[in-house]
Design a protein that fits this description.
Four copies of one chain form a homotetramer. By secondary structure, chain A is α/β, with parallel strands linked by helices. Chain A has two domains: 90 residues, Cytochrome b5-like heme/steroid binding domain (Flavocytochrome B2, Chain A, domain 1, Roll); 315 residues, TIM Barrel. Chain A is built from 21 helices and 18 strands. In chain A, helix 7 packs antiparallel against helix 12, helix 9 crosses helix 21 and helix 19 packs across helix 21. The N and C termini of chain A lie far apart (72 Å). The relative contact order of chain A is 0.14. Chains A, B, C, D: It is an enzyme of class 1 (oxidoreductase). Chains A, B, C, D: Its cofactor is FMN; heme b. Chains A, B, C, D: In the N-terminal section; belongs to the cytochrome b5 family. In the C-terminal section; belongs to the FMN-dependent alpha-hydroxy acid dehydrogenase family.
């Protein structure tokens, strides 16, 4: 059996090229030659470890079972012969993440009062590379900024003397009761911030009576995350990227569906990964020879850059269509959401195609820059097809930083609100950090509910808000004066 | 008699736990065990002085009679035996307010030209803790900033050649004539800024022909404030928080009413205290062991924070309802105002429930952040129920910094304008400072009246203003396009 | 004859109190006791020179003939006996303006490209006190800033290919042809910036084919300014403040009218002088004992401050009314303008009262702060009473900094545009500086005309502008939704 | 033959005045006396080299053939006698551009991720003088800033799940297919940034499947640029300034037309050159005696300044009219565009006069400041005369910095988009730099297309955008409330 074969460091070192590429991971030696080009994280990063030990870099972002689940059995070459390992060879195990600060620079969790404090703490604690990957957005970050600012431009019109002794923040979604309508947005590679990654996030959410959305590109598999808590019937959501290799997606959806996810949310706002310049700049600045080489090459060819984000997305199928919803339904019994709706027109389409819900998102400003802010899309849906809010679940993310933002989205018809970066920043403190984040948001939500004068979220309604500053920015559908005027002219000459 | 019993320092020191909690205050020893948990300022601050002398901290915020009026007679344990007091023990009397500057850093009063100068002076002169408590607002301080900025976005359209020799700023409210329609907002604990606290404020207001609103949480009791001037018939207003312990409120209202207040203003915009992060951060940063301990505890439990503000409000009844106006009327003959109206709908309700007036306020941006600015609520009332302005007195606070702001509010239908922080900052200079503040505002108001072309406030009208920049932001009642569209959907799945 | 009497320094020094107040000015000794309280520049500044020589301070702001023209003959006490003057006594002649920089710090005139360069140069070259007086505006300077910014928010919509070889900037106003429709706003005390003051301004304007508006409070009298050029028929405008002492005004108007001014412009936007805090702060900071004393006094009394501006305006009659236009017409044949119109309503009134023109102005933001910007008032007049633009001359000042601003005002219907501060800053360079300023503005105007596609100012029209950003801010007269809703309510209780 | 005559340095040095002005250029001696006053770059710069060698300054901005093509044969005096050239004389050859940095301070091209990076690199690498000339705009640069910002205020409303595997950015213009609808704006003197100047720009554009617009004031002639690539049929556009000397223009248009340009674009937005203060300030600051002299002279006369830009434009005919389109058509068969359209009215006129296209431009904010931003003019055309977009080619420049900006312009009806400064900054890296720029823009455009959900540019339409923030700023033609109200009044008095 290959599984038992002992392989020496000398032997491993010979397979160090793209056409013959071995690496050892946690004691097992794999032949990655055929896998490397389709590595979600990119070929180049694997090339750096050709003929070497990749354990440290692997463990920084992946759970232990990922290699054996993802690689074909014929790729297994044997076990690393520990007797041939020298200290010098060991010392070459390099991290892919250079740290810029030591963990103790982070403030105590007790000093963290809000999501902004979590952000400041993460910027201190994370490596520059991880910070660029997690905090960055597309191009000039205009949508990222507008996501936040547009919430701030909605005023409350509180009602007084209604008796608000014990505000009830609970909600019922997809037949499940949650203590607060707050989930983590699906975000890749939580291990970058903490070894427990998504496991910690799920444990904390469960302990607070809510849940998370497990990401297709999580550090841990859906099954691993599910098993982080004892109650295997507790609702957990799953986010899916449809792979260019549709067979791979079919297998994945069936595997996940066997574990009864509360819903599957198909991401549709990232047919190609956006241009994350902070991320790309880090790669260029880092001085890694292999990557610098790539960047120089790209001068003459592809200008899409080589950042972590761009590599991560290379397997996503840009050819996904509405008709594929039918195909997905043949693969699973789970309710299906479309994640990334950005117009009333597409909200209507999701309803027509029998989706259980939509998820309004511009991918945290990481897809196309200057995409309209999420809350503006929610207002657009209200103005053009309010029936959508009645007939489907509506999730929304992008710019939520306060409990009062959550209340605003709920008042405008959302079922639940998701946060991406704040959860990644909080998980730097592990499960306790994520719990603290949820506690903060729930407390801020309760306070806001009492102060605007409602006792439960079912009493939330648009009249509690003054959205007058944003109303003129709302796209008003087919009455838009430019909607029909222009057809692309052909050259006349 | 317990009152005469001598108690040694040694004896006092034994009662130093939460379950057996004694402290000496100005020579008298009290058993605070049963009182401490309901201390408006919070339990933790009392715990710091268990078994010790609390005089210095007590006197920093409370008038001398408060203890004997608030504590039951059985709590009186005796008199501190001065012969047992050592210098070392005395030196342990700590201030709860660490000073960051010496008093002489403050500019001379003659250098203070406007309310902003008072603010700058206060920031220099106050302890960090008091500054955070008084200057801070909720969350991101967006409402606090908008309160000020929205006044600045209203233009005057002055009228010329109308003859304005001697502008008359006087007004008649509730049957009383005041020299200017300017009162202090009810604000807690003026002693934090000056030993004379509210006494100085009332004396100065009286000397200028106007008055103040005595706060439920003032450093001095209503009776003490009333007695600060000789004329016991001079109008003084009273602001009331309704206590969770309604019996306590009944007693309080009856006691105050016996002193014939010009009106009682029930605060309704603070069913729970807002999240004042500057205030909470000071607590966390201060390094006080007891408080740090609390903060750490709160990681696992309550995220509402432990600031001075949050503690202060813990006795307020969140279950107050419109029907309670009737109950209050049975307790007093004084006219009743509802303080904290933030929508036209509630202005109408106050009228229906027979209130004498409303007080438009978002608690200086200290309740729910992003509550709409006060002047926008006044415009909303104009647009939706102008009859309210005709049939009730309308006070307004929030963002008034100039005499021209006062004139704008009056032009839009307010009866009187209140200022909170500026009075607290001015009282740092004692009675003379508050007098100087009122003089400045009156002079600015007179100058503005002459320059826009009116001789008395009865000539003020909206046509003197150009509110075009704010008009689109005004909520237009039931014609609001979103008002009826959304009902909270139940889960469909 | 008193005129010939020799008075020794010793004798002069004895009359050094408010009740017996002598001073020598350029060799003549005057008894100022009865005059000092009505000194337009304030009593306190004269008190500083009681019993002393005031020549230096006098010459800094006044032309040589002012004393003999303003003071009654009985005030003349004699000639200073030069033989009694000692060096020590001479050395006490103090300047009222402390200089903060030497003249050579100013850039060469050839380096001055625009009005902003003039402003920067003036800030360097002027004393702090003069800078505060000339550059400052009221309260928070919001109108001052908006005056400039609102011009910037108007876009041009240039027309191309119309043939614009030699743009003609000339205009015909009141029967006089001017090379450019640009005058200096009437501004006090140009001598503060340059010894030639208004004389230099008038000479430069004349040499460029335009004129100035001589200010009631100029350093030189109307006659002196008129005589600065040879052509005594050249048009010169005169600005008038109506004095509380109406007889004084009657004499003044008749004296000026004898010299055939092209028009008399009555200032009506300053019934009281605004609060110029920069100006007041300088007084307080300067450390002058006499003034400091005044400031301290003012703590207990008047909060109107003691700045140069406030003192200067104390003689202005706040009781001026529209009916006084008739009175003025009995005193002069000159066309009468009302300067300081700030609403369409008052533009209509000026027409009804037979004025030859109006002058839109908010006194450079120096009267009531948050008065609407001047260009907005012009738009208001267009929207509500465009006939005014047809039937009267319309001048406008406030915020004009570029030739393109001039063109915008002309497009919107103004006859001429005035600039205040830029002329004061330019006159620091004397006649050559003011000439340079007019050259710059004329060149910028010509360039703008060619680039928007007009050959003469008679072709200017509103369609060359895109005012869409400002249009919503324009007050729309009686259709304003708040115009009739609110009457001041009387107390109901 | 004069061409062969040897001329000594001593002889050359004698002709050193404006009335007898010789200079040597690359070994040839020319008599420039009659040419110098009409030098497009101004007389003064030539005067600096009177009687000297001008090769270095000439080569910095001009291609080698320009002198012999532009100067009459009688101006040729002979060849410089190299044997008389001394080292000392040689060392006097001065650059007209002082460098502030060495070339190696520029980042590697591989580090350039977007147009802003190119800008930052150029600011480092260019001389202050060239930077001021290329980056500067008119007066306060308000239009320059608004050009960029108005694109940022348009949001995308992406459509999802439409299948976008391989976006096609190609377009067909004037019968030619281009890989991307992106051209360089015509900009003067690219040699200032790189010796290959426009040659490099054209080679790079051709290699990427697109083209450039050769500028009338390019460093190289149209023929030289055309010859930079082998394919003489490849489409190249030509931009024309009509010369005050119409005969010169006739010759030029005929010469260019003989080379079959794809179109001739007549610039009409610069009847006079705008006031570029950064440019003028450099001249003043540089300390060049000749130029300082000019500036001082200008104090007394022309205030138009002496910057590179102002000089460059002095030959442009300000008297160009719409009727001249007919004249141009008699000179050429090439399609004619009008470059500089800034209103719907002029777009209509271009159609009426039979133009093949219009080019919306405000000259990069370098003509009249506060001209409306280009994208606003495109919206104005849509709102008032959408037929123009159907019947003519529409180019647009001004503010395009991202591929997403390109897509926005195309969605709103543009045929192609031009960029000026970014190409000049990129050409500092030569052909490779310009290629990199086009690659970046094409990649950003592809990414944006996929993310908003279109497969080819023919699918672009206004409904993909939310222009609600800009819509209120669009001029609405004859319905504009001010369009007819004001006529210039004549003086009434």
């Amino acid at each position: 059996m290959a599984q038992e074969k002992k392989i020496s460091v000398e032997e491993l070192s010979k397979h160090n090229s793209q056409s013959d590429l071995w690496a050892s991971i946690n004691g097992t030696v794999w032949d990655l030659t055929s896998f490397a080009p389709s590595h979600p994280g990119g070929l180049s990063i694997i090339l750096e470890y050709a003929g070497q030990d990749a354990s440290r870099a692997y463990n920084e972002v992946h759970g232990p079972s990922l290699a054996s689940r993802s690689l074909p059995s014929f790729a297994l070459k044997g076990q690393l012969d520990e007797s041939t390992v020298t200290d010098e060879w060991k010392s070459k195990q390099v991290s892919n993440l250079e740290h810029t600060s030591t963990p103790d620079e982070k403030p105590d969790l007790g000093q963290i009062l809000n999501t902004y404090d979590f952000e400041a703490a993460a910027q201190k604690a994370l490596s520059k590379k991880t910070w660029a990957f997690q905090s960055g957005a597309a191009n000039d970050n205009l949508t990222h900024a507008a996501n936040v600012n547009f919430y701030r431009r909605i005023f409350f019109r509180p009602r007084v003397m209604v008796g608000v002794p014990e505000p009830d923040t609970s909600t019922n979604i997809l037949g499940n009761k949650f203590s607060v309508p707050v989930f983590s947005s699906p975000a890749a590679l939580a291990k970058l911030a903490h070894p427990d990654g998504e496991l910690a996030m799920y444990r904390a959410a469960h302990s607070r009576g809510t849940t998370i959305i497990a990401c297709n590109n999580a550090s841990f598999s859906y099954g691993e995350i599910r098993s982080a808590i004892e109650d295997q019937d507790y609702p957990l959501l799953y986010q899916l990227y449809v792979n260019k290799d549709r067979k791979a997606t079919e297998k994945l959806v069936k595997d996940v569906s066997a574990l009864k996810p509360a819903a599957i949310l198909v991401t549709v706002d990232l047919p190609v990964v956006g241009k994350r310049e902070a991320d790309e700049r880090i790669q260029l600045d880092a001085g890694y020879q292999a990557q610098k080489h790539m960047a120089v090459q790209s001068v003459a060819g592809d200008k899409k850059g080589s950042g972590l984000a761009r590599s991560t997305g290379s397997f996503i199928d840009p050819n996904l269509k509405w008709s594929d919803i039918g195909w997905l339904k043949t693969l699973t019994d789970a309710p299906i959401f479309v994640k990334g709706v950005q117009s009333a027109a597409d909200a209507r389409k999701a309803l027509e195609h029998g989706c259980a819900g939509i998820y309004i998102s511009n991918h945290g400003g990481r897809a196309v820059d200057t995409a309209q802010p999420s809350i503006l899309t929610l207002l657009e849906i209200q103005a053009n097809c309010p029936e959508v809010l009645d007939q489907m679940e509506v999730f929304i993310d992008g710019g939520v930083r306060r409990g009062s933002d959550i209340l605003k989205a709920i008042c405008l018809g959302a079922s639940a609100v998701c946060l991406g970066r704040p959860y990644l920043y909080a998980v730097g403190y592990g499960e306790e950090g994520v719990g603290h984040l949820i506690d903060i948001l729930k407390d801020e939500l309760e306070t806001a509910m009492q102060q605007v004068g409602i006792r439960s979220l079912s009493e939330a309604h648009p009249g509690l808000l003054n959205t007058a500053e944003l109303d003129p920015y709302v796209y008003r559908g087919d009455t838009h004066p430019y909607a029909r005027k222009v057809v692309r002219r052909q050259s006349k000459l």
